Amino acid sequence: MRVYLASVATDGKANSHALARPPVTFSFVQPTSVEAALRAVGTPGSVAIAGGTDLLLDFDNQRIAADRVVSLNGLPWKHLTRAGGRLVVGSTLPLRRIELDPRVAVDLPGLYQSVHAVGGVPLRHRATMGGNLVRASPASDLLPVLLALEATVHIVGAYGSRASSLDDFLRGSRSVDLAPGELIESVSVPYPAPSAYVWQRVRPAKDISQVGVAVARVPGAGHWNVALGGVVPRPIRSPSAERHLTRLRPKAEEITRAAEAASEGVAFATDRRASEAYRHLLVSVLVRRALDKAIPPEAPS
Amino acid sequence: MSQPIRLTVNGTDLERSDLDDAERLLDTLRWRLGLKGTKEGCRTGDCGACTVLVDGESTLSCLTLTREVEGTRITTIEGVRGEPAGPNVLTAFGAEPALQCGYCTPGFVMALTGLLQEEGSTHRTSNLVDELEGNLCRCTGYRSIIRAIGALGDELR
Ligand code: FES
Ligand code: FES
């Protein structure tokens, strides 16, 4: 038997990981003004980092490489503000701060539930909303609820700023409409909005959702918005379910029809977490559960 | 080689100029500072064994660049006694005892200490157990850990 012992050195010379894979190298800058940050990320070879909880894995797995990492944590983008009926979440605000805000769970229960579904507390102390959007994982727990809430993405670039609906912003799996040199400053959603997010996993803790379903009632939509996660290539709204959900308190048969129709024509992956057929089945169950959770109780007469 | 970096680790102010820009806090603690109490279980954010406190907030040191925490106050298992909730957590884990091999224990202790000190989080046992979902243990079957948390949840209201 061969016993391999990593060399135990406290002088900084040895690191067992240096033996296991090529070391990740880059230089690090943390600009403190938006102008400086835009200049830095606009320089070829640079990549922006916020929480880093997803990005650093890509460095480790050699899916990306960069000469320079530009930290956005020196920017004044860690706000959580309310203005004109919208909740504005700064892009680099750690998810945990959204969860601990006393009003979010009340005004936007679906948003609260989706944030809570991401990783564990120590991860949520660093992971950010902006990072989750830019990384655009098809399995993201945040994207379905943000789609259902018709979120707006506020973007800055050297030219000025622009706003995009999240639906337009998401292009495909891990692909978004963000030009080199642009950064997400914040994301906003209308509030209050009855909403819910439910998910199914192989095991409840510490795994990625097989499917996630978000429902939300936002002003002006005329129906419940329904959004599905775990869909390839990106989370989407489900107009075929929404058609049946015009009432604030839909009838039982309308909910059944919406649940059955929700995944019509939707492509799911078949992977180690679930087959496509199982994901279809899950969607119909979860649409029902999400609506049960979100529909406000009848006011006492 | 990079700019000197200042950190306060377990109450000691440090200035180091031998860190790499791409270095993770986990490696700085273990390999530069010799603080081997912080464990590496996965290096992918899945196990929680590497949890430390950064300005009092539980943080996965394997997914944190040391340069990102420049100027902060870092507490590892070696210094947890100096945190307000630290001694109680250690006592609860020891009394049970809530460990077998102990590899996961520093992560649990740091995550739990952070939760108990965090403003706005509720300290009911069920919440604490739920909030520790990011910490994995391969030995205890969790029962003893949950009992230790129960003792804390009841005492520290
Ligand atoms: S080593 Fe950091 S989470 Fe496992
Ligand atoms: S006591 Fe061995 S991993 Fe938890």
Structural topology:
The complex is a heterodimer of chains A (301) and B (157).
Chain A: H1 16-20, E1 27-29, H2 34-42, E2 46-49, H3 55-60, E3 68-71, E4 80-83, E5 86-90, H4 95-100, H5 104-107, H6 109-116, H7 121-124, H8 129-135, H9 143-148, E6 152-157, E7 160-165, H10 166-169, E8 170-172, E9 175-176, E10 183-190, E11 195-200, E12 211-216, E13 225-229, E14 236-237, H11 239-242, H12 252-261, H13 276-294
Helix pairs in contact in A: 12-13
Chain B: E1 5-9, E2 12-16, H1 25-32, E3 51-54, E4 57-60, E5 73-75, H2 86-95, H3 105-117, H4 125-131, H5 143-155
Helix pairs in contact in B: 2-3, 2-5, 4-5
Q: How would you describe this protein?
A:
The complex is a heterodimer of chains A (301) and B (157). Mean pLDDT of chain A is 90; it is low at 1-14. Helices cover 31% and strands 21% of the residues of chain A. Chain A has helices at 16-20, 34-42, 55-60, 95-100, 104-107, 109-116, 121-124, 129-135, 143-148, 166-169, 239-242, 252-261, 276-294; strands at 27-29, 46-49, 68-71, 80-83, 86-90, 152-157, 160-165, 170-172, 175-176, 183-190, 195-200, 211-216, 225-229, 236-237. Chain A has three domains: 2-71, Uridine Diphospho-n-acetylenolpyruvylglucosamine Reductase, domain 2, CATH 3.30.43; 80-190, 2-Layer Sandwich (Uridine Diphospho-n-acetylenolpyruvylglucosamine Reductase, domain 3), CATH 3.30.465; 195-294, CO dehydrogenase flavoprotein, C-terminal domain (Enolase-like, domain 1, 2-Layer Sandwich). The N and C termini of chain A lie far apart (77 Å). Chain A has a five-stranded antiparallel β-sheet with strand order 4-5-10-6-7. Chain A has a four-stranded antiparallel β-sheet with strand order 11-12-13-14. In chain A, strand 4 and strand 5 form a beta hairpin. In chain A, helix 12 packs antiparallel against helix 13. Chain B has helices spanning 25-32, 86-95, 105-117, 125-131, 143-155, and strands at 5-9, 12-16, 51-54, 57-60, 73-75. Chain B has a five-stranded mixed β-sheet with strand order 2-1-5-3-4, with helices on one face. Chain B is globular. The chains are: A alpha+beta (301), B alpha+beta (157). The A-B interface holds A 8-10, 12, 14-15, 17, 23-28, 30, 49, 52-53, 56-57, 59-60, 69, 71, 73, 96, 100, 102, 119-123, 125-126, 204-206 and B 2, 18, 20-22, 24, 27, 31-34, 36, 43-46, 48, 51, 54, 57-60, 63-65, 67-68, 111, 114-115, 118-121, 131-136. One FE2/S2 (inorganic) cluster binds at residues 99-104, 137-140 of chain B.
